[in-house]
Every structure is written in structure tokens, then in C-alpha cells.
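hi! just following up on the protien thing from before. the input was this:
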Amino acid sequence: MLRVRLSTKLLLSMLLVSAALTVSSLLFVRRFMQAQVRREIQADLRNSELTFKNLQRQREITLSRSAQLMADLPTLRALMTATNPRTIQAHAGVRRKHPARRIAPRTSHQTRRMGRHPSA
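and the predicted 3d structure came back as:
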């Protein structure tokens, strides 16, 4: 039968223990890194969501302020209270020059279309 010297047995057992410790530590590091990456991704997603909500809120505030400023223009206020379709069509051509000054479709209380911006 094959006789193995004591020093060889000791060397093989130390090699086996070293390999087992290396594999277990690598598995531990892998698990730890996966958890860390998951936490970072979750934090980044939360930050992205908050950033998107803030941008959306700021956009809504800006649009609301723009609408308020447009509503306070005397010419637009007079035009929106007009009920004569010719008056509305005549002023629609003037507003067309500035894209922020589009005139929305207007209907009377009988739901009849009164005026419309030609490019809308």
C-alpha cells in the first residue's frame, strides 16, 4: 500500500484548509458586494424618483405661472371675452407670431366653436 510521509500529510491538510478558507471568504465577499450593490441601486432609484418629482413639480409651477401671466394680458383677456367669431379669427393671426401666445379653441355656452388658432 502507498505510504505517505507525515510532512506530505501535513502539507496536504494545510493546503485543504487554506483552499476552504479562501473559498468561504470569497463567497462571503461576493454576498456582501451583492448586498452593497443592491443598496446602492435602491438609493439611486429613490434619488432619481425624487429628482423627477421635483422637476415635474417645478415644471407645473412654471406652466401655472406662465398661464397666469398670459391670462393677465389685456389683449388676451379682451379676446377671450369676445363672442364675435370674426373678432377672434382676426386676432388669432396676430397671436400666431409668438408660439407662447397661442389661442386655445373657444366655445360659447352653446358648445359652438367660436375661434381656433390656425396651427392648433
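The chain has two domains: 9-72, 74-120.
The chain has a mean pLDDT of 80.
cheers
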